[in-house]
């Protein structure tokens, strides 16, 4: 574990409980900050890569470190959270910025809310009900599984396929929707695949 300690008020990137700037990349380990408080709102770029990656902030009131996973409630328009080959659990999360899943990442949450300018993108598995007024995008040559219901005024986009080099073939993008969905689905090209596990309760357009 790497720990960074800064006196209260001395860490310019923490304003109240908002992480306001910088980029924080954690690879297969824990990065801990003792800077006067925990983070509930993200207006910076955070990447958690590999299964044991964790970002923690010391809670002086509770007397222990608190994982971003349990404290984060919102991603601001200027914020981004990238999950790569890791499992992440959340209570409720409001997304006005960008949430990206990469390389078999999994996200479990009680509820996700995507604002009009917000975006979820990438590949992996999302186990959560989603209210989407923004955009959910399946990355090129990837598969995204959403097991919870999806509603809202937003759009789901299946990106174009790409040629792989080993073996040499064309690989399309795959979206699997596991529950009732009231969203329009847009294909970027003819190679995409949409799997509806509950087609009777799909009320969007394709």
Provide structural commentary:
This protein is mainly beta. 2% of the residues lie in helices and 53% in strands. The strands form four sheets. Strands 2, 3, 6, 10, 12, 14, 16, 17, 19, 20, 24 and 26 form a twelve-stranded mixed β-sheet that branches. The protein starts with a strand and ends in a 10-residue tail after the last strand. The protein has one helix and 26 strands. Strand 2 and strand 3 form a beta hairpin.
Main attributes of the structure:
12-stranded mixed sheet, 8-stranded parallel sheet, mainly beta, 206 residues, 26 strands
What is the ordering of alpha helices and beta strands?
EEEEEEEEEHEEEEEEEEEEEEEEEEE
Structural class category: mainly beta
**Low-pLDDT windows of residues:** none
* Largest sheet descriptor: 12 strands, mixed
Distance between the termini: 47 Å
Count helical runs.
1
Rg on CA atoms, Å = 18 Å
User: Which bin fits the share of residues in helices?
Assistant: under 10%
Estimated share of beta-strand residues:
over 45%
Mean pLDDT across residues? 90
Gross morphology is: elongated
How many β-strand runs?
26
